[in-house]
Design a protein that fits this description.
CATH class of chain B: Mainly Alpha
Number of domains of chain A: 2
Number of strands of chain B: 2
Distance between the termini of chain A: 41 Å
CATH class of the largest domain in chain A: Alpha Beta
Strand order of the largest sheet of chain B: 1-2
Radius of gyration of chain B: 20 Å
Number of strands of chain A: 22
Shape of chain B: globular
Radius of gyration of chain A: 25 Å
CATH architecture of the largest domain in chain A: 3-Layer(aba) Sandwich
Oligomer: heterodimer
Strand content of chain B: under 5%
CATH topology of chain B: ABC transporter involved in vitamin B12 uptake, BtuC
Order of helices and strands of chain B: HHHHHHEEHHHHHHH
Largest interface: A-B, 30 and 25 residues
Largest sheet of chain A: 6 strands, mixed
CATH topology of the largest domain in chain A: Rossmann fold
């Protein structure tokens, strides 16, 4: 469940900032308001009247416009067509392209993005598409405008234009909900701040209470357990990345080293490029730069190359990329190792079964038998299947992306224990997680990424959630750059 | 109207093919041959345009050829055996084809079947119905009288130009306006490219897709009548076999992507013209006619390979 009873009000001409950690439920809430998802309980009211939203079209007609975080411009159409999609101006049966282009031109000028309205979307950069999304909000009469991370790909100059536009809209009485991880922006634009945590309200701040430390504290907001980290003697460097560029952030390069026996954590906001980096060096996506494993330079073009060098990835999306849900537990465990049991292409069932049983025992996977289907297991046990298929294959380097997403507390502890044990045998472990608590508990060192770059690094001994959050959200601020 | 590079390339290929083959074999330019090729282009072109609309949604309609056979025999029987009035029979056949399209559309949008599967069932079902209704006998129109005006649509000429080709041009203009000038067309391309985003923008996605199948059905209905008169002998087990594949091939050759969201009316016209000219040349150039499908397969393959090669060029990491 992404949301558990959230209350929110938005006044006329008010800018309400909604903040919270990854997974706090901000985007889900906005999709409810935008008519994309339906709530199971509770009501949405507009001007005091309860409304039922069946689909996005209805929300739009009521004047609720959402600028979504995932860009939704349709790239086989031009800018003007996208701005008016769903609300075309027409002359009888036909589209009135001239009128739309004219109006689109005015809107683009107003937001300070002066390109011809007939420019195809496909030729625009990510930042430019974001501006198109913003322009879309102005094609209709809007009463409530929701901006979900609108500045994530904008330059400071473009962001300033957006803020200017928001002030204009505010003067016209438009209420706005502003979602952002950039706290300096929140301070600049917000009249009020609502904090969400774990799908619930975690507090509210009036204009004069909005400061960065208060917001960070409220977002993190739990009593922190003190974890005692034993100093470890690390082995030699097992994985070294030198100047790695990915397709997501081709303009930045990343270098890092993970030692044998070490668990390196990687923090960062969703979209900061962590997963893309891991997937690139594991052969899922392309990269440029140098990867060294145990000091030897290797070139990884496809997942087989990575696996051949003992570099394994436990992917973020367990159900889509980690498992064959309709396959049995046993088949899932043995899938990457089938060659071991094969002669002339035929699988010998007895050694395969023994191998699978070994995995089930080692990770204490709770299932009726190895023939149970993976989809019948709990999230925690499913995750253990994915871990066990790689644990059994003698990893040199194991990359675990979100080790415990959707996993219950009990299994979490077991998974941490297993990952620690693995590291103790000299394997280099790289854990990507959006769960701060997890990083603090599990890792010896935490690297923080932001917008495709490594922003800094904290050792386990003096890491705190605030420090990590600070690195993940701050850094480039409008104030600093302009 | 802007032409895409791809369309110009196909057009150039067509011209070259025509000129070269004409120089080698003067039969190519004989009025009779041109007329017949034009007639075939007209008949195949009409339903290829309908198919293209479905393909732009990211769907496909495999039932087309079987519908030609089923409604073809029904049409023939209505006129010669049941003695329906010609106008009624014409409306009934075109209407029935539209209803079959509607059924496909409902299966895809409401029952959420994959278009390939839903229309594959149609392919089998209508073929079976054709054979059942006709009792496995070949149907035709013989010397029956009273509907010469419909017959003219298929086999007649207006000022030397075959009527089906004229019908195709009229259809093409209508489709051009629908696809490239109307609100519906705008939605069609939006849905085909990114269904979710279109829904977020307030587009009624299901209705757009449903309409595409109905439009395809209508075009199939018109083509049914033309093919029935053109062959004048409708064998329920073989009439229309593979015709859906001609349409799909023409659409793909003309720039439609089976993933949806891409395609133009001009491209499809050029695609079907290229295919029919090629068939004609295979016949005239004394290439063994058994190789006809092989030649077409190669040409389509080369076409799409080149296309995907040029598309792939633009997707590199550029730093």
């Amino acid at each position: 469940m992404a949301l558990n009873q959230v209350d929110l009000t938005l006044g006329k001409g008010e800018v309400l900032a909604v903040i919270g950690e990854n997974g706090a439920g901000k985007s889900t809430l906005m999709k409810v308001i935008g008519g994309v998802h339906r709530q199971d309980a509770g009501t949405v009211s507009l001007d005091g009247q309860p409304i039922t939203l069946h689909d996005p079209a209805q929300a739009l007609r009521l004047g609720i416009r959402v600028i979504y975080q995932e860009l939704s411009a349709i790239d086989n159409l031009d800018v003007a067509s996208n701005l008016f999609l769903g609300f075309e101006k027409r002359k009888g049966f036909f589209l009135d392209d001239r009128a739309m282009q004219e109006r689109a031109g005015e809107i683009l000028k107003r937001i300070g993005f002066d390109i011809p309205p007939t420019t195809p979307i496909a030729s625009l950069s990510v930042a430019q598409r974001q501006l198109v999304e913003i322009a879309r909000a102005l094609t209709l009469d809007v009463r409530a405008l929701i901006l979900d991370e609108p500045t994530s790909s904008l330059t400071p100059e473009e962001a300033k234009n957006l803020f200017r536009l928001m002030r204009d809209l505010k003067a016209e009485g438009v209420g706005m909900i502003y979602i952002s991880h950039r706290l300096d922006e929140v301070i600049e634009v917000a009249d009020r701040v609502t904090v969400l945590r774990d799908g619930q309200n975690a507090g509210e701040l009036a204009k004069d209470q909005i400061t960065e430390p208060t917001m960070v504290r409220m977002m993190v907001g739990r009593d922190l357990e003190t974890v005692v980290h034993q100093p470890k003697t690390l082995g030699p460097a097992r994985l070294a990345l030198q100047g790695i560029q990915t397709t997501r952030f081709p303009q930045h390069s990343v270098s890092l080293t993970v030692h044998g026996g070490e668990i390196m954590g990687m923090a960062g906001l969703v979209g900061s490029g962590r997963t893309e980096l891991a997937q690139a060096i594991c052969g899922i996506d392309r990269y440029r730069g140098e990867v060294r494993i145990d000091g030897k330079s290797v070139r990884i073009h496809r997942p087989t190359d990575a696996i051949g060098h003992g570099l394994f990835l436990v992917p973020e999306d367990r159900k889509e990329h980690g498992l064959t849900l309709d396959g049995s537990v046993g088949n899932n465990i043995t899938l990457p190792s089938l060659r071991r049991f094969a002669s002339f292409g035929l699988i010998k069932s007895r050694p395969e079964a023994a191998y699978a049983e070994g995995g089930i025992q080692q990770l204490a996977i709770k299932c009726a038998s190895r023939d149970t289907l993976a989809k019948q297991l709990s999230g925690g046990n499913q995750q253990k299947i994915v871990l066990s298929r790689w644990f059994l294959k003698n990893p040199q380097v194991l990359v675990v992306d979100e080790p415990t997403r959707g996993v219950d507390v009990g299994s979490k502890a077991e998974i941490y224990e297993q990952i620690r044990k693995l590291a103790d045998t000299g394997v280099a472990v790289w854990v990507i997680s959006s769960d701060m608590e997890e990083l603090l508990k599990l890792c010896d060192r935490i690297v923080v990424m932001r917008e495709g770059q490594i922003q800094g690094e904290v050792s386990a001994v003096d890491a705190t959630e605030e420090k990590i959050m600070q690195l993940a959200v701050a850094g480039q601020t409008l104030v600093n750059q302009s | 109207m802007k032409f895409q590079t791809k369309e110009l390339v196909i057009f150039a290929v067509l011209v070259v093919l025509f000129v070269v083959s004409g120089a080698v074999n003067h039969q190519v330019f004989q009025p009779g041959n041109l007329q017949n090729t034009g007639r075939l282009i007209g008949m195949y072109g009409i339903f290829s345009l309908g198919m293209a609309v479905v393909i732009i949604t990211g769907g496909i309609d495999l039932s087309v050829g079987s519908v030609f056979a089923f409604l073809g025999v029904v049409f023939s029987m209505a006129l010669t055996e049941w003695k329906w009035s010609p106008a009624l029979a014409l409306v009934a056949v075109v209407g029935a084809a539209a209803v079959f399209g509607l059924v496909n559309g409902l299966l895809v949008t409401r029952a959420r079947l994959q278009p390939f599967v839903a229309t594959l069932c149609g392919l089998l079902f209508y073929r079976g119905m054709a054979r059942f209704v006709a009792n496995d006998e070949t149907k035709g129109f013989g010397n029956a009288k009273g509907f010469e005006w419909i017959k003219e649509l298929a086999s007649g000429n207006v000022g030397g130009c075959p009527t089906p080709l004229i019908l195709l041009l009229v259809t093409a203009v209508l489709f051009y306006l629908l696809l490239h000038r109307s609100v519906y067309g705008r939605y069609l391309f939006a849905v085909g490219r990114n269904e979710e985003a279109a829904r977020f923008a307030g587009v009624n996605v299901k209705q757009v897709v449903l309409m595409a199948y109905v439009i395809c059905g209508l075009s199939v209905g018109v083509s049914t009548v033309l093919f029935a008169f053109y062959t004048n002998s409708i064998s329920p087990s073989s009439h229309g076999n593979f015709y859906e594949l001609y349409a799909i091939a023409a659409a793909v050759l003309g720039g439609c992507s089976l993933r949806g969201g891409e395609g133009t009316v001009v491209g499809v016209l050029l695609g079907i013209t290229l295919l029919q000219v090629l068939r004609n040349l295979v016949n005239l150039m004394r290439v063994p006619s058994s190789l006809e499908f092989a030649v077409m397969g190669i040409v389509i393959l080369v076409g799409v390979l080149l296309d995907s090669f040029f598309k792939g060029q633009s997707k590199r990491i550029t730093v």
